Amino acid sequence: MVWEVKTLDQISKNLDRKRVPITKKNRTHGSIPYYGASGIVDYVEEYIFDEELLLVSEDGANLLARTYPIAFSINGKTWVNNHAHVLRFKDKISQRFVELYLNSIKLDDFVSGMAQPKLNQKMLNKIPIPFPPISEQKRIVAILDEAFESIAKAKENAEKNLKNAKEIFEGCLQSVFENKGDGWKEKTLGSLSKFVSVGYVGPTSKFYCDKHEGIPFLRSQNVRPAKLSMKGIRYILPEFHTILKKSQLKSGDLLFVRVGANRGDCCSLPENLGEINCANIVFARPTEASPTFLELFCLSQIGRERLLSMTTGSAQGVINTKSVAELIVPLPNIKEQLAIETKLNLISSETKKLEVIYTQKLADLEELKKSILTKAFEGKLTEASV
User: Fold this and answer.
1) Residue ranges of the alpha helices (H) in the chain?
2) pLDDT digits (tens, 9 = 90+) for 245-296
3) What is the domain class of 4-129 according to CATH?
């Protein structure tokens, strides 16, 4: 079967001239979808199209990142702004075929600009479209739609299982601090620590040096819930490490993000990291309780809510040394602390294994989808190959 190569101006009619952008302040809210580059951005009162059409992103980072489909069909009464090309096809099958194809290929060679990526109409019309006879298009579309429906259901189940796996540990963690045993006492984190301090606050770039000659210099982006991330880690010269004595950290220190969307994130500093320093992080040095147990409390919903309720300063809030020092912690004896740690660590280990399985499942399903699309547009797709 012979496949031709067509361009979009040969197989569709471009309706871009009918698009009308409306600034947000000038929109009258209604029930009509208002489309932009990546889908619906609002709802308005009037419409300019009332038919089945294919929209293709004209601009935006997604043209290169491909986080969302860049081609998507719309139907019925709609309004489209000037960030999406509007294409009308004579045949619904051809429209769906082209939609699937455009979402399966990279468009980097047709996109201009990196800071503000744009796919203009001239370049859109240069994209070569493998175009088989309508009977073959119909066969391919039917197989792909059926396969993708099955993949979507499998992804939905995997995502649900992944969410459930994460919630198992979170539920167990919450239960520990909701159902405290006899003999638990409430103490402030400050009273359980040698001190509560804050890392260096100020310009940091003047301290930086290469990894091979420096001391690790932690910042807020390195503190993640129950995990110290070394991604993007900076290093400072040993002499600066000595000067910044009040920012020097030790194993077992409890670290907190002070500001931003992740404020309140907490982790304890692992052992065997050697000398290490920090900037813009609040930290406590526990001496009267297990650092891991305190970390678990701060990660629990109860602990996090208590800590965030004590933020001060700006509208978003800042966690300062007083917030951390005055945080009230429910505390059993040290033997029970260690027993709770062991139990929760075991549950965490098992749930993380499940998370790995379901995360890999999602990745495999994405690869399967790509493989099926590749076969489809190479003319190698059969029902047996799906």
Assistant:
1) 8-11, 62-65, 92-102, 121-124, 134-178, 238-243, 291-299, 301-308, 321-325, 334-377
2) 999 999 999 999 998 888 999 999 998 888 999 999 999 999 999 999 999 9
3) alpha beta
C-alpha to C-alpha distances, 386 to 73, 96, 97, 359, nearest whole angstrom: 24, 19, 17, 22
**Looking up tokens 């047996």, which residue turns up?**
384
- pLDDT tens string 146-197: 999 999 999 999 999 999 988 999 999 999 999 888 899 999 999 999 999 9
**For residues 367 and 115, what is the distance between their CA atoms, to the nearest angstrom?**
29
Decide: helix, strand or coil at residue 317.
Answer: coil
Lookup result for tokens 């990142």:
65
CATH of 185-331, one of 3.30.450.40, 3.90.220.20, 3.30.70.120, 3.10.20.740: 3.90.220.20
Single pTM value for the model: 0.68
Residue 57 identity: S
Tell me the one-letter amino acid at 6: K
User: What residues contact 151, with CB distance under 8 A and at least 6 apart?
Assistant: 365, 368, 369
Two structure tokens written together for 292? 């891991």
Please identify which residue in the block is written with the tokens 């420096």. Answer: 214
How does DSSP classify residue 249? -
